[in-house]
Amino acid sequence: MSISVAVxxxxxxxxGLVSDVVQELDGFDLVARLSSRDGVDVAEPSVFAGASxxxxxxxxxxxxxxxxxxxxxxxxxxVGTSGWSADRLATLRTSLAERPxxxxxxxxxxxxxxxxxxxxxxxxxxWFPSIEIVESHHAQKVDSPSGTAVRTAELIADARREVGxxxxxxxxxxxxxxxxxxxxxxxxxLPGVTAQQSVLLSGVGETLTIRHxxxxxxxxxxxxxxxxxxxxAMRGLTVGLGTVLGIG
Length: 248
Hints:
It is built from 7 helices and 11 strands. Helices cover about 30% and strands about 25% of the residues. Strands 2-1-3-4-5-11 form a 6-stranded parallel beta sheet, with helices on both faces. It has a 5-stranded mixed beta sheet with strand order 7-8-6-9-10. By secondary structure, the protein is of the alpha/beta class. The protein has 2 domains: about 5-110 and about 220-245, NAD(P)-binding Rossmann-like Domain (Rossmann fold, 3-Layer(aba) Sandwich); about 110-215, Dihydrodipicolinate Reductase, domain 2 (2-Layer Sandwich), CATH 3.30.360. The protein starts with a strand and ends with a helix. The model has no long low-confidence stretch (mean pLDDT about 95). The longest helix has 13 residues, at about 110-125.
């Protein structure tokens, strides 16, 4: 029996790729392709055409309402939209406690290379007193910092629980970036860029840079396949593709 999938944000770059992946996957059936402008944030659950999995790849302002509508339809949800802060995730976790048979997978980045880069940064994090993140994306990206950078900063902070926050001087100055979990994050939005993230770690007499470049959106396809295969069996809230891949 095929797993029916609805994609919200299907007219966007990532949404188009997700739709193509669903159509190519054995055992999956694309039953609805919805634009983020279709009003599904306030629509009836029937808008998802009975899909058992709803994929949200829209914009941060719409995403929470879309997820709640999808859950009300009885579907499992795969979220590839940025902007899911710790507060938003906590609210979603509470909501899912009332829906023990459903699951939501929130994926800040579908790139396997990006997931590995973040994991390597968490391994190195306890050994360096100073850490900053620089992320670059295309000029049309609406949120800053990126969801990937926020997730990376949060995981680095978690890895440093025993040694404490990073050394970050002069953070009161706007040019020093935005602090996320005590880590300065600098966001660039440039035409001609797809996505790039560098984690710069520094200690006395040495630096370590862990950099990942996304050169083509096609790099997200393996991660999308892995996430789609995993989400129907999930219960509760899962954050990050690393959990699906067994990384970290």
